[in-house]
Amino acid sequence: MLDVFESWDLTAPPLPRRSLLLPLEPIGIETPLVESLTSYISRLAEVHAVTVSDLVGYVLAACAPRDAPIVSERARRYRMGSGFLPGTHAINGVAEDARRWIAAAETATDRTGLRLLTLSPLKQIFCKQSLFRTVQAWCPVCFADWQRNGRPIYLPLLWHLRMVSICTKHRRPLDETCPHCDQHFGPLYARAKPGYCSRCRGWLGQSASTRQKPAEETARDDQIWMATCVGDVLCPFGKPA
What we know:
Blueprint: H1 2-6, H2 37-47, H3 52-63, H4 73-78, H5 96-109, H6 140-148, E1 166-167, E2 172-173, H7 221-234
Antiparallel strand pairs: 1-2
Helix pairs in contact: 3-5
């Protein structure tokens, strides 16, 4: 019996590296409808059953570089809105704001390549002035289709760009006003959740068969061309290493 016990290998097995947050898989890499970083952060909050403000204020803020914080020390100390100020659309862009949020999200999830959810890889192509719309836009038919097919609800980077005004799949203008509260909202609010109004929490999806489509909601050829060209530019981002 002693010989049996002496043959046991009590060496602790190597444990895989752990991440602070679930390393959620980004949606649509290498496609025109690649997910935006603000959408990814909202989905991270949803999968951990917390608000975006708590995720940012308690977790992501602690993961940001010390020399490039995403939330001021005063805001963190007193929980003053967790840093959600007008201009969060810049998180998806080409400037310093994007770099800070990318670093924080990658540290928390132990993922690489989250820069592909922003325009950072294309900073030589896009200028940062007037690049993004200040309010969120979406296609309600896409939301309804994704929900019906059991796919994740998210917000493509393409829909944040001011130069893109239509959904190329359904050939209809993107919506910017909640049909329930008639309000606009930005890309990242304290209680943001993709597919839902950040103000009243109303569902924003609506199928094409039940939606009354006004006569003026017809995509022009130039709008379709612009959205298609911008989507093609987003495709060659490539997969993260």
